Amino acid sequence: MITLLTEPEKDNLPIKSAELSKIGKKYRVAKAINPVSEDFWALKDISFNIYKGRIFGIIGRNGAGKTTLLNIIAGTLSPTEGDIRLNSRVRGLFNLGVGFQDELTGRENIFLNGAILGAAKKEIESRLNAIIEFSEIVNFIDMPMGSYSQGMRLRLGFSIVTNLDFDVLIIDEILAVGDALFQNKCYEMLVDLKKRSKTLIITSQDLSMIERLCDEALLIDHGRILFQGKPKEAIGKYRALLNTEKFFVGLPPRKPINLIEDTKKWADNTSDWGNKFGTKEASIESVKFINKHGVEANEINTMDSLRVKVSFSVKGEVKNPHFGVAIFRDDGVYCYGPNTGFDNRLISKLKQGKGYFFLDYQSLLLAPGKYRVSIAIWDRDEALAYDHHYGYYKLTITGYDNKQRELLCMPVKTDAGMASKIIRFLTCKRKKIDVGRHLLTNKSGKIYDSAYAKITYARLLDANGNGKNIFMTNERAEFSIGLDRKEPVGKGLYLWLGIYRDDGIYCQGVTTLLNNGEDYSILFPKFLLLPGQYLGSVGIWDSLNENFLLYHHGIYPFKMVSDKQDHGTVYMKHEWKWGTE
């Protein structure tokens, strides 16, 4: 039975938003073989109270009864037995955008969805601008819903429910809304709702989010309560429960489970660069880039050292935070994004007051160009930012004229032919040979050998001289290339190696002057590419006539793996330091 609470609020005592007593939900299940049906209790003997202005988490395995319980609290299901008393206006977030019609505009769907949720037209009109603004689809609001992406539909659905009037909001596993920035915005909305004394009931398998947001958590299994109390303790008991039953589908994987095979390669949304967001328990107050001379500067020479100094303040004690710094190229390419969590530099807590952290890069292995830097202080599992300055800071890397738009400057050695035994150590501070990469547009996967010469082999070798195409980040890697020339070496000819990501980003080019040798080696003492798929290209560049005499473009695939979780394209050696001011 569902009734409304009418007891008045009492000073200094918590007010109940909902009170459940011995709730049970029974279903009749008919068996295919035996026509006699049986009773299945999805919930049994559920009793607990939910108090005003708190976030209440419900966790448990799939099929434990979480959604059934939420539907009973929301009033969309009636219990078979027991009583539930409500002192609140309840809205449920089960399926975002229920009732959306593709032929209607986004604006029209706001009124339709709001009506389905029980909101009066006057209420929807009063909140219309807030709904549209929060959803971030202002420019599309009068276009048909059929033209929306799934992410846009989810954004609008979340915005409608959270901006309507309610006392209790029920959220069932739907917080993966849009990109990472909008998800964080949703989390911030939930924190703000709590500050406004709204009651939130959440179920999710994202345990870090439950621990981060909730005041109390309920663990249920097979329809019964196993524990109610502090979220951290509830999560500990849930993990112990999960360890009692493990399921394997097929054969266990042969590869090490801690090996990272791919990582994030692009910014989430460059249109959001320059924004600051977070819950502000900790706030970033200043960010400085300091060059190798100890001077603050926004221009750093390629391959020089760089210190990023961040000053922050903490309102109250913050437990288990981590610091993050991410560098992006101006087109959104993710260069490198270490954080203290990835580096196992654990921070137990930040005390109230002023603090700082440094990130020292030994050598900035990025090619000249324009870059954007994000600085963040996150919770332990990066579910919610305390403060995140997203692509907020501009950094210019200087050096040679980077006409080829290459991304990286990894140190490399070349052996310019077995006959000459000339070995050179190349850096990105020297003048680069401009290779006309534009001439290879739309030629990926193609081979062109000329009458002048042909490539007899191109292999990737490990430190033992063995050929392979999978390398660990920081491992030694050598490109061994053989040439068969039909004519003497001409002037201005260069052997070129180009390394690309599999999405077409030009990582780095290496050129070495062609001579009478037949075997060439291009050696990376430490192959610093981060996990993902890459392609190698080889060619002979005629710098006098500005064309390729031959090329094998994008036909040498290889893969990078790592035991580190760092995001981006290149690993750059670094150190963290932090303290109080």
Explain what this protein looks like in three dimensions.
This protein is mainly beta and 581 residues long. Among the domains are: 270-401 and 571-580, Distorted Sandwich (Coagulation Factor XIII, Chain A, domain 1); 412-561, abc- transporter (atp binding component) like domain (Coagulation Factor XIII, Chain A, domain 1). Helices cover 15% and strands 41% of the residues. α2 (106-116) packs across α3 (121-135), α2 (106-116) packs across α4 (150-163) and α3 (121-135) crosses α4.
Descriptive labels:
mainly beta, Coagulation Factor XIII, Chain A, domain 1, seven-stranded mixed sheet, six-stranded mixed sheet
Which oligomeric form is depicted?
Answer: single chain
Instruction: Pick out the low-confidence regions.
Output: 5-9, 245-257, 417-424
**Tally of DSSP helical segments:** 7
Largest sheet: 7 strands, mixed
Rounded average pLDDT? 85
Per CATH, the architecture of the domain at 412-561 is Distorted Sandwich
CATH class of the domain at 412-561: Mainly Beta
Form type: elongated
* Secondary-structure content class: mainly beta
Q: Proportion of β residues?
A: 35-45%
**CATH overall fold name of the domain at 412-561:** Coagulation Factor XIII, Chain A, domain 1
Strand runs, count: 34
Helices and strands in order:
Blueprint (H helix, E strand, L loop, with lengths): L1 E3 L11 E14 L8 E14 L3 E5 L6 H9 L6 E6 L3 E4 L12 H11 L4 H15 L14 H14 L4 E5 L7 H16 L3 E5 L3 H7 L2 E6 L2 E6 L1 H14 L30 E3 L4 E9 L8 E3 L4 E9 L3 E2 L2 E8 L4 E4 L11 E2 L2 E9 L7 E10 L6 E14 L13 E4 L7 E4 L19 E3 L4 E9 L8 E3 L2 E11 L7 E9 L4 E8 L5 E9 L4 E11 L4 E15 L5 E2 L5 E7 L1
Parallel strand pairs: 1-5, 4-8, 4-9, 6-7, 7-8, 13-21, 26-32
Antiparallel strand pairs: 2-3, 2-5, 9-10, 11-21, 12-14, 14-19, 15-18, 16-17, 16-20, 17-33, 19-34, 20-21, 22-23, 22-30, 24-32, 25-27, 27-30, 28-29, 28-31, 31-32
